[in-house]
Amino acid sequence: MTTETLTFTQTWTCPVGVTSVDVECWGGSGGGGNSDTDGGGGGGGGGAYSKKLSVSVTPGVGYTATIGAAGTAAGSGGDTWFSTSGTVLAKGGVGGSTAGLEDGGAGGAGGASASGVGDIKYSGGAGASGSGFNYSGGGGGSGGTAANGNAGSGSTGATAVTGGTAGGNGSVSGAGSAGGTPGGGGGGGYNGAAGAVGRRGEIVLTYTAGDSFTSYPKFFQFL
After folding, report:
1. Where are the domains of the chain?
2. Residues with Cβ within 8 Å of residue 120, at least 6 apart in sequence
3. Which pLDDT score, from 0 to 100, does residue 37 have?
4. What pTM was estimated for this model as a whole?
5. Which DSSP string corresponds to 63-113?
6. How far apart are CA 10 and CA 145, in angstroms?
7. Looking at residues 129-145, what average pLDDT do you find?
8. Do the Cβ atoms of 52 and 22 come closer than 8 Å?
9. pLDDT band of 103, cuts 50, 70, 90
10. Residues 127 and 63 sit within 8 Å (Cβ to Cβ)
11. How confident is the model at residue 219 (pLDDT cuts 50, 70, 90)?
12. Element (H, E) at 52
């Protein structure tokens, strides 16, 4: 069994002898919200997870692998997909809202499994809302291989589920921290600081390498 991890957008060329692949996708995560004086930005939402079994491929043919971009501060993460957006797709998380003066920003929603494409799908966790006077919100975790991502809680980033990543922490004094790669939501900024950027998505391909020969002799004749 061969496993390939794709971390940037590219054309993946199917190896000789391979006719199907299992595809796992994680969406990019949202960045944490920015902040104003005495306000905490919301945490970014985690990227979703989608898996499609036995995707048909043709040896020597190139397939588009689009990796969801990390959300900028207060920006949303990109969607991750393989071949086409209708083949297998994991949604990106939403960026946390920017805080106003002495006001907390709302946490961003996690990437929604219902909007993804695949046989197995899990949502990313939501970012936590920031506080007007105390802290910024923690980021949501990415979707895992068997569960939805956890949500951020207060200024604490989400803990990782199996096959997923943690969210970044919020702050009580300045910038939040980034989440895990792939797809962990960024923590919000506090008291005038910027929110942490999100994390990129990822694709994992699993397949059985075939024999490189295209024909075989049925018998040998010895003279």
Report:
1. 1-211
2. 49, 50, 51, 53, 145
3. 80
4. 0.93
5. EEEEPPPPP-TTPPPPPEEESSTTTEEEPPPPPPPPP-TT-PPPPPPPPPG
6. 24
7. 96
8. yes
9. confident
10. no
11. very low
12. strand 49-56
